[in-house]
Amino acid sequence: MHLPSFLLLATSWLPAPGSAGANQNVLARTIESPSSSSLSPPPPPPPPPSANSSSSPSTSCPLLTPQPLTIAQLSSSFPPPRAATTSAWDLAAVDAIKHALTLYAFAIDGRDWDGLDHVFAPGATADYGAPIGVLTGGRDQIKQTLPPYLTVFAGTQHVLGTQVVSVCDDGGEEYDGGEEEEEEGRGRGELLKRNAVSVTYFTAAHFKNGTEGKGLDEPVGMKDVMYAYGQYQDRWGVQEDGTWKIEHRNLVYMGPFVSETS
């Protein structure tokens, strides 16, 4: 199925202004005030919690549904982590998630649709905005829906940029494994977080038909390329095989498409 290119340039592709409702999932902060009636000096502060301690402060996952996070909510939804509460498990999770996001760009630009099996969970959902809309039929529906919107071009290049990955407590479980895993950085009693949320800026170049095979000796103009700017907002979960995969994705455009014909 090949859609006419004008569908990809139509203004209906972009989300309607103000369509993303306010998301109230801003991490709460509480401050305990010292009692004014106490005459004794305050006790010394407790030592920072160990990275392997299950008593580390809880970090709830920012909500990505029913509406995507607005750009104004991003900085308050992802406060910086404290080094003392960041475990080896968290660091490994962040690395695995960044790896999977890179595989997404490889699969899309290489048109290796089965490569998306390494990125999306079997039951994944997605909100791509207009004209694709909301996909609730799992990974197979995502793999069937995306190609017609991309193969209308001669090629694409997806570049990932500004990014945050937050490994969350939601669904965490206490680790009680053996010595081998402890040597790998998992301490007995450590809270192994099973969920994560990431936001990744992207710039996507779409090369129009007729540009195939052209190189430095035959450059093309802006009329032959269309650029899209946006964010991937992803919720991740640990799968049964131990890999991190996307369980829900929002695609949020951050501006109009840029091309001489747009």
Automatic annotation (TrEMBL):
SUPFAM superfamilies registered for this protein in UniProt: NTF2-like
Position of the signal peptide: 1-20
Residue numbers spanned by region Disordered: 24-62
Start-end of Pro residues biased regions: 40-50
Sorted UniProt keywords: Signal
Domain of life, per lineage: Eukaryota
Comp. bias (Low complexity): 51-62
InterPro entries: NTF2-like_dom_sf (IPR032710), SnoaL-like (IPR037401)
Pfam families, per database record: SnoaL_4 (PF13577)
Domain SnoaL-like: 90-250
Protein's name in the database: SnoaL-like domain-containing protein
Origin species: Lasiodiplodia hormozganensis
